[in-house]
């Protein structure tokens, strides 16, 4: 009998010893997720600028075009209000997605150049990683088929791990009345092969044209701070906040180098081979829920600009760089034949123009330089002879937005442990 007990004890100890490394491994993991360029992406400067203004509730002070029906947020942030949608799941049959598509707004071409794969339950969607928001919401089968055309719709009924959160709703609404809203559940989300079992998934039952027209984009994965999350009555954590305790380092990085086949995001590790020199860190202000820092110095081709900056955020979900109106004007004052084209909504210039480099202050010690070649966002009118600028004014908004044009020149670290961001030129 004693021998049997001894054998049982040894068996338990062995099982514990074998299990320990697995548990330890979860405390030091890192993983990557790549980006896939969308073959049907149509680069449109006016559409990208309009999308950014819409996202941040900005009514541009310089542009005379009337924006009828706007309900602009006074603080320059998205307007978040509780949703009145039902919290029960529907199968989408005969559904028009509530008032989906009822807002008469100008439809944009597909405006997500790069998307990343995210697996929810047993289904993989292509989603936009957005450090300027904190909601993880998806197109799903509660919407009618006419509204999900061009999108992969998540089917909660086919995921054995999905469960609804009773009474939970979300609503994202922007200044021009575009919105997405619906009910909320929990499911296992896998990114880069790493899973979290209880990630909040927001299921849209109402979407407006601006979201529907962004074909191939199946949803948004927010990576700002969880305080921005719009779920009611209890805000939900982002994927990064959920997996942060298990990461080798409490960070994720954006390596979004121009024309790089290896571009993407890495969680839990800083790959020093991806940047040159040392990282320059600056503390962030999380009061508004963004990765926010001060940006008050600028130069063009190494010569300081006499212009006033202010708070800025790093936003992978915005294509352009939006600086204070005076900074944008000072930059284009040094670009031959550049003008503020009110018909297109932003600064344009002859496509044959060689643009100067722009350096943007990150805190007090680092200047992030964006090459002039990256400042041309592409042809926009006049038979392909006029191009749209990759930097534009922020329309009098309270924040400067450093979007993908900046990320194409800079490797960026989002450090959720030390509450800071780090910058360095791409290797």
Provide a descriptive summary of the structure in words.
With 427 residues, the protein is α+β, with helices and mostly antiparallel strands. It has seven helices and 27 strands. A six-stranded antiparallel beta sheet has the order 1-11-10-26-27-12, with no helix packed on it. The protein has a six-stranded mixed β-barrel with strand order 3-4-9-5-8-7. It has a five-stranded mixed beta sheet with strand order 13-16-25-17-24. A hairpin with a 4-residue loop joins strand 26 (410-415) and strand 27 (420-425). It is globular and about 60 Å long. The termini are far apart. 46% of the residues are buried. Mean pLDDT is 84; it is low at 1-25, 62-86 and 93-111.
Arithmetic mean pLDDT: 84
Gyration radius (Cα, Å) is 23 Å
Low-confidence stretches: 1-25, 62-86, 93-111
Estimated helix fraction: 10-25%
> Hey, roughly how much beta strand do the residues contain?
25-35%
Shape: globular
Total DSSP E strands: 27
* Total DSSP helices: 7
Biggest β-sheet strands, sense, barrel: 6 strands, antiparallel
Report how far the terminal alpha carbons are from each other.
66 Å
Which secondary-structure class do the elements indicate? alpha+beta
Report strand order across the widest sheet: 1-11-10-26-27-12
In a nutshell, what does this entry contain?
With 427 residues, the chain is α+β, with helices and mostly antiparallel strands.
